[in-house]
Write a structure and sequence with these properties.
The protein is built from no helices and 3 strands. The chain is mainly beta and 40 residues long. Strands 1-2-3 form a 3-stranded antiparallel sheet, with no helix packed on it. The relative contact order is 0.37.
Length: 40
């Protein structure tokens, strides 16, 4: 698991768990192809 800091203001990520847009920090699985979590 990596924690990513927002570096691309135009990138759009949705939380895999709650489906909300992720703004700010996100958690990314290094083994899963499409798995991002917000910190909410």
């Amino acid at each position: 698991i990596f924690i990513f800091f927002p570096s691309d203001l135009y990138a759009k990520y949705n939380c895999t768990y709650c489906q909300e847009d992720i703004t700010g920090l996100r958690v990314k699985c290094v083994e899963c192809q499409d798995f991002d979590l917000c910190l909410q």
